[in-house]
Amino acid sequence: MYLEKYNAWLAYDKLDDEIKLELMAIGDDEQEIRERFLSDLKFGTGGLRGILGAGTDRMNIYTVRRATQGLALYIKEQGGADRGVVIAYDSRHYSPEFALCAARVLAGNGIRVYLFTELRPTPELSFAVRHLGCEAGIVVTASHNPAKYNGYKVYGRDGGQVANEAADYIFEKMQSIDIFGDIPESEPDSPLIRMINEEVDEPYYEAVLSQRIHKDLGQTAADLKIVYTPFHGAGATAVKEVLRRAGFRKVYVVPEQEAPDGAFPTVKSPNPEDKEGFALAIELANKMEADLIIGTDPDSDRVGVLARESDGSFVALTGNMTGVLLTEYILSQKTGLGLLPENPYVIKTVVTSEMVRCITDRYGVELVDVLTGFKYIADTILDHEKAGDMNFVLGFEESYGYLVGDYARDKDGVSASLIIAEMAAWYQTRGMSLCDMMRELYAKYGIHKEWAKNIYFEGTDGIEKIKNIMEKLRNDIPKTLGWSHVVAYTDYSIGVRRDLVTGMEKKVDLPSSNVLRFELEDASWVAFRPSGTEPKFKIYAGVTRGNLEAKIDAIAESVNTLLEV
Question: Which of 248, 286, 364, 367 is most deeply buried (CB count within 10 A of its CB)?
């Protein structure tokens, strides 16, 4: 089958010259042909994501055209052609080309399109869907993945990533469309395609700036020295602008990483979770005697933070640590100033630190747990917005994604950068760094330590390996993990929590997801989850009390044994 698809692509008389040459170059490599053509790039809740290149399982103009045609059919069925679609893109290879390709297919279907003239952060796209009253949004990005990837995320009219049902519908329609068939495309200058820029930028900046708590930190903000890196991505303009408008005058951008570049030449991977990528930022921060380092990924929805320690070194804060700091800062300050709304709530994911619960309990704020993926945070905001029963304050996930306020429905590295800078400046007025504040929180709420491991499974066999791992875990529930007995587990694929001590089962009211979470005797936990957007298997753990390093080491050893599939 994959050889037939390969030959069909080569035989297509209008095939793009670059793609044809690429296919001809692998003509003698059957394994490579199999990798590219055995399956089709799947359209899931995160849209498309894959390696750039020729083939049905790769990101290229043909897979983008077919996905967009599936989306166009969905939009027309919903009666949303006149409401239109807004499209943004980041700095990755072929992002502008894929964005224009999508715009032309939509316009060819009679659907109104708003297309940003230049790269923009993903959260601005989420905001724009709501601001412009669109039926949907598209952002061409592969977030923090390595340079060989690109992707295509679709948003619904609420500004959140498209719902499971819609994603399934679009994928079903895609499967029925001939990739080289008669997919309508307009000319690039179609009257249905409207180019946009400042008319969305300004209200977006205003929405971000409105999330500030202490809006006039005066000289403290002006004197705070911040080094910022956009990792060659879309955040440079927006982050610099909101920090400037908020009064931060000493913001130094890493020059080697400021210009957009889809090759990401200065880092192994443009991921703010990896301290390795901050080497140039640390060098500049030491030169400028900076207090804080902030980095956003290529589409500026994730944020990494490095804080200056008392000995002069920089400490990389984990996503959990930054989230905990933000939760305490926002809740404490809004409570003190009388700004906390009635019936407030915070959202975290099931693999995010339980330390958050200690903080929300202290301030009498509801904590809502959701599945991993920011779309579930957006769905929860929408549900409560419709019900009118609770007021959203903050949502975050351990993978460095934060949303303060409900103006957008995806994690926002722009607003997070602003609030992190504000938080650092405000604590500085108390003579404290973020490291000092983290120690204070540990003293107040107890020390919590989290651990995560990513295992990559490249190639078509990777899916089978991940499937085997999850089947093994479900069919043979581990009796112990690390030093402790497993006392309960939750299988989110069937929505059931089972207590292994009492044998009692409890329904979990969350959507089905391929996640297993094991609870240990001392409130520690371990979770296993295949990534929904990348070829990797993710393991998470959280421990508290006692020798945390030894507990984490014991869990890691147990995990390595379990994964011998």
Answer: 248
> Quick one: pLDDT at residue 523?
86
Rounded to whole angstroms, how far apart are CA atoms 227 and 424? Answer: 13
CA dist 394 and 384 (Å) reads 13
Question: What confidence tier does 287 reach under pLDDT thresholds 50, 70, 90?
Answer: very high
The per-residue pLDDT for 534 is 63
> DSSP for 517-550?
EEEETTS-EEEEEE-SSSSEEEEEEEEESS-HHH
CA-nearest of 276, 280, 259 to 91 is 259
Report residue 459's pLDDT band, with 50, 70 and 90 as the boundaries. Answer: low
For the stretch 400-428, pLDDT in tens is 999 999 999 999 999 999 999 999 999 99
Q: CA of 550: how far to CAs of 14, 90, 526, 547, 555, in Å?
A: 61, 42, 15, 5, 9
If one counts every other C-beta atom within 10 angstroms of the C-beta of residue 195, the result is: 12
Using DSSP, state whether 341 is helix, strand or coil. coil
DSSP 353: -
Q: Strand, helix or coil at 561?
A: helix
pLDDT in the model for residue 201: 98
- Residue 515: name the closest of 501, 497, 502, 500 by CA: 497
* Per-residue pLDDT at 565 exceeds 60: no
**Could you report the per-residue pLDDT of 256-273, keeping only the tens digit for each?**
999 999 999 999 989 999
Alpha-carbon span 285 to 304, nearest angstrom: 15
- How far is CA 497 from each of CA 217, 340, 355, 481, rounded to the nearest angstrom? 47, 33, 21, 18
Separation in Å, CA 79 to CA 72, 134, 177, 240 = 11, 12, 21, 39
Where b means 16+ CB within 10 Å and e means fewer, 101-136 reads bbbbbbbbbebbbbbbeebbbbbbbbbbbbbbebbb
* Residue 174 pLDDT > 60: yes
Provide the 3-class DSSP secondary structure of residue 246.
coil
In whole angstroms, what is the distance from residue 32 CA to residue 250 CA? 50
- Please list the alpha-helical segments (H only) found in 366-410: 374-387
Mean pLDDT of the region 284-291: 98
Which residue, 551, 550, 533, is CA-closest to 542?
551
Catalytic residue among 91, 143, 417, 433: 143
User: What is the structure's pLDDT at 16?
Assistant: 95
Instruction: Determine the Cα–Cα distance for residues 148 and 53; give it in Å rounded to an integer.
Output: 9
Say if residue 178 is exposed, middle or buried (CB neighbours under 10 Å; 0-12, 13-18, 19+): exposed
What pLDDT sits at residue 207?
Answer: 98
Task: Identify the three-state secondary structure at position 41.
Answer: coil
Sign of CA dihedral 525, 528, 533, 534: positive
Q: What is the mean pLDDT of residues 310-337?
A: 97
- Residue 330 main-chain phi, psi, to 5 deg: -65, -45
pLDDT at 533 over 70: no
Q: Residue 430's pLDDT is what?
A: 95
Q: Give the whole-angstrom CA distance, residue 306 versus residue 280.
A: 13
Quick one: pLDDT at residue 457? 80
39 is catalytic: no
